[in-house]
Task: inverse folding
């Protein structure tokens, strides 16, 4: 029997063959389409044991386990989808936590200066949605870092410290705000940004805020400046901040840091002038040493006049690109009418010694 398919049978089979061939040919296109979207899960666990003097009301010392000194522990998700034409949609959700207890961090006991009252915040570090262009402009909406916080990170060898005992700039400018609309652009190599925080208070500007910043990086030099205005919840006071600074990478292993900030208030006579100097050096391929000095001079009246000075030296040993151990020696001095920080028992001085372990994934 002749089993050779007839011409008609061959014609009927052709579409099926074409479908299979087209499907196989389309697999690379499908893979490419899937590659335009990405989801990144990441985190950082940083636990530090610190022994500090002058913690109790009687000046007693204490040993405690804290969240990281310079980097806070976190779990985060980031997504990016290529929308075509150089435009991408993005999303960020980052949760901070205390590594010693597992409790959520970044709570706000009271609403003020752009922060909504929240007993706890699961996504307390950042949570925003936005658009980003390859041309350098971007738009984002949600709970975000203030422009002042982003700029002052350039002034300090370890960025803005997570520990309040080691930070001064963030005590004035507020690290994060809720309900923020942020617009970014790049023009002739200059990174420009503007932010507007919605206080959501009917009838006044309570907790409203705005800020603008500019940054420029050329070779080993990175500079930044910002202006920020924050209203309190009652809309009876406005905090005004201006700052500038940057860093200079003198060699592949050595970088200098410097910055200054001025804060004054619309009603209160208080003024603060903050400046910092710092340096970071890689003494061995896996050993880095950093040091910084921060000085905050407060004035406005005899009652308010005072100072806070912070100095620290830290050294880290990297086991790998993701894991390291570090040590910190630090000193705080607070005097005059400067408000006593919560981490100190009495006005005066505090010495601290830290050993921390950090892992990124």
Result:
């Amino acid at each position: 029997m002749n089993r050779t398919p007839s011409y008609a049978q061959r014609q009927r089979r052709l579409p099926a063959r074409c479908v299979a061939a087209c499907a196989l040919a389309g697999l690379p296109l499908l893979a490419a389409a899937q590659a335009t979207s990405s989801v990144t899960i990441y985190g950082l666990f940083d636990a530090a044991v610190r022994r500090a003097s002058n913690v109790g009301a009687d000046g007693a010392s204490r040993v405690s386990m804290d969240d990281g000194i310079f980097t806070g522990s976190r779990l985060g998700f980031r997504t990016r989808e290529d929308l075509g034409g150089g435009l991408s949609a993005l999303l960020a959700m980052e949760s901070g936590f205390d590594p010693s207890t597992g409790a959520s961090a970044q709570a706000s006991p009271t609403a003020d200066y752009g922060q909504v009252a929240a007993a706890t915040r699961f996504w307390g570090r950042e949570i925003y949605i936005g658009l980003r262009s390859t041309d350098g402009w971007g738009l984002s909406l949600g709970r975000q870092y203030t422009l002042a916080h982003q700029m002052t990170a350039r002034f300090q060898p370890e960025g803005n410290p997570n520990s309040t005992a080691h930070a001064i700039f963030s005590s004035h400018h507020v690290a994060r705000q809720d309900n923020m609309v942020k617009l970014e652009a790049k023009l002739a190599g200059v990174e420009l940004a503007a932010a507007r925080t919605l206080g959501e208070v009917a009838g006044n500007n309570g907790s409203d805020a705005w800020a603008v910043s500019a940054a420029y990086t050329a070779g080993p030099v990175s500079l930044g400046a910002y202006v920020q205005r924050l209203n309190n919840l009652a809309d009876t006071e406005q905090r005004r901040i201006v700052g500038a600074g940057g860093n200079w990478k003198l060699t592949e292993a050595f970088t200098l840091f410097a910055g200054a900030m001025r804060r004054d208030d619309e009603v209160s006579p208080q003024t603060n002038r903050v400046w910092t100097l710092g340096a970071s050096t890689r003494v061995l391929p896996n050993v880095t040493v950093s040091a910084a000095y921060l000085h905050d001079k407060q004035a406005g009246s005899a009652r308010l006049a005072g100072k806070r000075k912070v100095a620290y030296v830290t050294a880290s040993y990297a086991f790998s690109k993701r894991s390291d151990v570090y040590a910190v020696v630090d000193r705080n001095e607070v005097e005059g009418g400067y408000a006593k920080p919560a981490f100190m028992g009495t006005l005066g001085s505090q010495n601290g010694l830290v050993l921390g372990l950090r892992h990124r994934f």
Remarks:
- Residues 7-35 form the longest helix (29 residues).
- The helical segments are 7-35, 147-152, 169-173.
- Confidence is low (pLDDT under 50) at residues 1-35.
- The two ends are 68 Å apart (CA to CA).
